[in-house]
Structure formats: C-alpha cells, structure tokens
Amino acid sequence: MKYIFFIPDGLGDYPVKELGDKTILEYANVPNLHGVAQKGFCSLLKTVPDGMEPGSDVCGLSLMGFDPKKYYTGRAPLEAASMGVTLKPNEVALRLNTVLIQNEIMADFSGGHPATEKSTEFVHQFNEQISDLGVKIHPGMMYRHLLVIPEELLQEGNGELGLTPPHNISGKEVSPYQPKGKGSALISEIQKRATSFLANGFSLDGFNANSAWVWGNGKAPQLPTFKETYGVDASLISAVDLLRGLGTYLDMEIIKVPGATGYYDTNYTGKAEYAMEALKEKDLVFVHVEATDEAGHNGHVDEKVKAIETCDELIVKPLLKELSSYKEWRFLVTPDHYTPVATRNHVAEPVPFAMCGTGINSNHAQGYSETVAAQLAKEPVVGHELMGQFLHSS
Fold first, then answer.
1. Judging by DSSP bridges, how do beta strands 351-357 and 284-289 pair with one another?
2. How far is CA 306 from CA 8, 252, 311, in A?
3. Any idea of the CA torsion for 179, 185, 191, 196, to the nearest 10 degrees?
4. Residue 300 DSSP code
5. CA Rg value for the chain
6. What is the secondary structure of 70-95 as a DSSP string?
7. How many whole angstroms separate alpha carbon 130 and alpha carbon 317?
C-alpha cells in the first residue's frame, strides 16, 4: 500500500463576507480535493486536545499519530532537531522571531518575511551583542530562529515561564503579552537588546524587522519512531523547521525541496515531484504546505484562495494520478488547525479531513469543506487516532 498525507497548514476558516459568506474551501476552485471527499470519506478531526494550544507543534503530533498530552514538551525543541541542534538535558530551546512592532502594536509577526540570508546575518551579529548573557541564537529560515538557554538561567522569578506566540497577537498591543514568570527577566533583556541593536547597530537593505520576540519554550521530547509505532517507512516534505524537526524525532526521511520557502512563492510543483519520487522507496509521504497558514495570519483572503487552488492543481492532481498507478493506495488531506483570515491566529476548532483510496468506504460527501465535514461527522475523530485508521482500517 502507498500513502500520501497532505497537510495544507491552517486551511480551516470561517465564512468570509467578501466571498459571499463562503469559506475559503467553499469558494476556491479545488476539483481534485472535492473529488477526494466525493469518492471517499469526509468528517471532522479534533487535532487539539482539551486544555492545549492550537499550535502546529501540538497539531503536528496529532496528525502524525502521537498523543500531544503524552509527548508534547514545547515547539522550539522540534525546530532544534530540524536545524541539527542537539539539546543537552539541561538546555531549553525557544523560538526567536524577528518582528515589526509599531506604536506598541504587533504589526508583523515575521518582520516583513526577510530573506534567510539577511536574517542569518542579523543573528550572527546579534549573538555578539548577547554573548555575556550565556545564551546563543541559531539562524533558521526567514524570520524563524532558535534560542538556546541553559535551564539554570531561567530560575529567577515566580511561576511558570509564560510566553505568547507573536502570530497570536497580530494587530494587538504587545505590552499585556510580555514574558512572565521564571526566566522572564532574561527573555525581556534579550528582546530589549534586539530592539536597541536593530535601531542603532544593524542596517541591511530589505531587513524591516525592528525587534525580536521569544516564545515556544521546551526541552527535548522522548518519542518512539514512526516505523516502530505504525510499521511503515515514511518521508516528510516541508519547508518549516517545526515539521522537519518532528519528522526527525520520529526517524522519518526529511526531503528538502529546492525552492520550498514556507511562503506564497514556494515550489509547489517540486513538492509533488519529490513526493512521487519518494513513493518509489517509501510507504508513506507527508506533504506539508505553509502558504495557506501564512495567508491566514496575514489576513490575505485572495492569497489563501490562490494557495489552496495552486495546491489542488500542482500537488493534489499529480499525486492522485501517480497513486493510481499503484495496485493499492490511499490519499488523505487535512489542515492541522484553523487560521481564519478574520482573526489571523490559530483556532482550536475541529478541522475537515477527507481520505479516499483502496478500502476506504464512502460516506457520500458532496465535496470537501468545513460545512460538509460538520454535516457528516457524528463526532470528531480524535486527532492522534486518525493515523491508525488511515493506515490500517479496512
């Protein structure tokens, strides 16, 4: 059996007024995704356990078949694995975003989506500005960087360290969301120095960030491998360090596609081509696209529509055609969470999923959308239980 698991990140959405009160999925021209639902099974998936935040880290664990309540330790440790940074037992990893804050408002959680080369230069120079603090930043993709801090430096203060994802406060005043709890003074100092350095010491054309924002703290998780859990060999295609890191911990093959950026301009065709090649050797290939999530965070309705339509034509269509050349196959599509263009942040709402192929019984869906999935769902499938159903149900 050959399997494709397609993840259009943050695709879930609410009805959009300018689209005639249709959701992105209902409005977009996505005949291939509709075909998956019509030929197979469509329902709702609860990717966020009660009491947890709807981040792609928690949701990614759910989608890959592992209970976040049992295995989740934080976002940044997953990104560390993707970047080849091995955390010591006494080290805490955190995400550091370059951001744009204007009039105390989080104007852009990415700082203008800087080119990776320019953002890397910032990290190299800024490390010199904070070397006395005993911490280190490792450069990542675009605005996504990794901060590593010895645990003993995060003991000052009262209560658990509380940090807020910057994409959750887009357009909001930042002061209520500053670091709190143990270690918050150190984190605040790092952010303060970044603001000062970007105002007075660092200048690079096209680099528009004016501060840094730290969040996503955690220590290295202990995870079993995907193969020993599910009995199949898997590959992962994503431009995002978070997903790559999760795949690394699960001992998947990580496939890096040239031109895959994690943004609107990503190499959709390349992702499909590399996935088809990987299927020759692997049982399962995860294909993740971040552009839909970025459009949601930016509040860009047209870009979110365009991203999923491009996915449908350049990824879903050729992969379904390729799968049909195998005797037995299955295809599954699901976002990890909602990222509505109206709210511009993640929402812990059950997401629509659809799967078709060998041995998948139809539940007569009219198409693929939030509304159809809700109408057909008796109750949402528990997130981490879907993988077993996808791989082994008959």
1. unpaired
2. 12, 30, 9
3. 140
4. -
5. 21
6. HH---SHHHHHHHTT-PPPTTEEEEE
7. 49
- Domain(s) labelled CATH 3.40.720.10 in the chain stretch across 2-72+223-392
pLDDT score at 259: 96
**Residue ranges of the chain whose pLDDT lies below 50:** none
pLDDT at res. 139 = 95
How much of the chain is helix, strand and coil, in % rounded to 5?
Answer: 40, 20, 40
Q: Quick check: 341 and 295 in contact, CB under 8 A?
A: yes
* Residue written as token pair 């603001």: 195
- pLDDT score at 394: 66
240 vs 256: CA distance, rounded Å: 10
The encoded tokens of residue 243 equal 């997903």
Residue 146 pairs with which residues in a beta bridge?
95, 138
Q: What is the DSSP letter of 315?
A: I
Q: Would residue 215 be called left, alpha or beta, if left means φ above 0 and alpha means ψ between -120 and 50 degrees?
A: beta
Exposure string for 179-206, b = 16+ CB within 10 A, e = fewer: bbebbbebbeebbebbbebbeeebeeee
- Give the predicted TM-score (pTM) of the model: 0.85
Cα–Cα dist 95/74, whole Å: 10
Among residues 344, 243, 239, the alpha carbon closest in space to that of 293 is found at 344
| 31: helix, strand or coil | helix
**Measured CA distances, 18 to 21, 60, 125, 291 (Å):** 7, 31, 44, 20
**What's residue 82's pLDDT?**
87
Beta carbons of 125 and 202 less than 8 angstroms apart: yes
Q: Which residue has 């929402």 as its token pair?
A: 347
**Assigned CATH for 2-72+223-392:** 3.40.720.10
Q: Looking at this protein, which amino acid is placed at residue 380? A: P
Write out pLDDT tens, residues 327-382: 999 999 999 999 999 999 999 999 999 999 999 999 999 999 999 999 999 899 99
Structure tokens at 176: 């209520």
Edge-to-edge, what's the strand order for the sheet holding 329-333? 253-255, 234-237, 284-289, 2-8, 329-333, 351-357, 41-46, 381-382
